Amino acid sequence: MKIKVAQPGMLTTVQDMGRWGFQGKGMPVAGAMDLFALKSGNVMVGNEEGAACLEVTVLGPTLTVIEGEGAVVATGADLGFSINGISYPCNNVLKVGEGDTLSFSGMKGNGCRAYLVFSGGVDVPVVMGSRSTYLRAQIGGVDGRALVKGDIFITGEPHILWRRFVDFQCPVAVLPERRTGRPLRVVLGPQDDAFSPKGIETFFSEPYKITESADRMGYRLKGAVIEHSGGADIISDAIPLGAVQVPGDGQPIVMLADRQTTGGYTKIAVLCSPDIAEIAQYLPGQEIRFQQVSFEEAVSLAKQESDQIIKLRQSVAAWITRIVPPMSECETEILMTSGTWELSVDGETHTVSWESLDY
Prior knowledge:
Layout: E1 2-7, E2 11-15, H1 35-45, E3 53-57, E4 62-67, E5 69-76, E6 81-83, E7 86-87, E8 94-97, E9 101-104, E10 113-118, E11 152-154, H2 162-165, E12 184-188, H3 197-205, E13 208-214, E14 218-223, E15 233-238, E16 243-246, E17 253-255, E18 262-271, H4 273-279, E19 287-288, E20 290-292, H5 295-320, E21 339-345, E22 348-354
Parallel strand pairs: 12-20
Antiparallel strand pairs: 1-4, 1-11, 2-3, 3-10, 4-9, 5-8, 5-10, 6-7, 6-9, 12-18, 13-14, 13-19, 14-17, 15-18, 16-17, 16-18, 21-22
Helix pairs in contact: 1-5
Protein name: Urea amidolyase related protein
EC number: 6.3.4.6
Pfam family, one: CT_A_B
């Protein structure tokens, strides 16, 4: 498909799984803030899990399909997605074609970031192994920036059976349970020994509010001062996704997708992977708390998230291999194995060959 940007929205960028393998050279990973939403959307339209999509923040864009057709699904937060003025819920795969207008009416209260995923993915140039937009360095995506009015982009080659993905509705059971107000789970470290017992207790017992200094790089928080046992600085080391830095003023910073590769502030803890996607849906002014979990629990949570994607893939596979009622004089039973099939349509006989579905 070829798609034109009629209105860009507040901040709409191309994102995928990120630019891995270059942190040693100082290049941040970037990528989608809510990785589960990216992966689940791609699974629902038959893409590779890491295919590029549009990350839509708070106020969504208005897009027009000017050529071709394909499948699309909105995932993540509900920002009021609609096609030609008709509203559709998230996680439903829809067919769009030439002349269709895709738009968003606004936030519905369950987050600030939606992901618009097209069959075939957004086809922009690959830079250092990724199509993600890294705004600070102006690389990736569409000319290294957010979409602007008048931009035209294309989607890639879709799954050969993309039409069979249309109308799939993601079961609620495979979506993560996200509840505003639930403490975000963290594992202590790697420099938790730089904090006093009082500082550790403060971190887990006090609420912290997300300040206006919150973007794709990280969220600065404000709340009770977290006390260090010594100095707040260390020799710079790597910053993992979801790390909670605490500089000398005792106010934590949660590091997110566009974080720098290294930093010299002590890190008191690291968020569990499902909760990184959860905080990415929060806005400035919202309050958060932290809850300690063990390393083993964090691994288990990550595995549960991975299992949800597997279950979603199985659900999608069941959908696309369903028996579709015949539209003419077709056979009513189709065995999903390779072979040939004589199809009679309007008195003419056609030989159809197919292969077993591998999805």
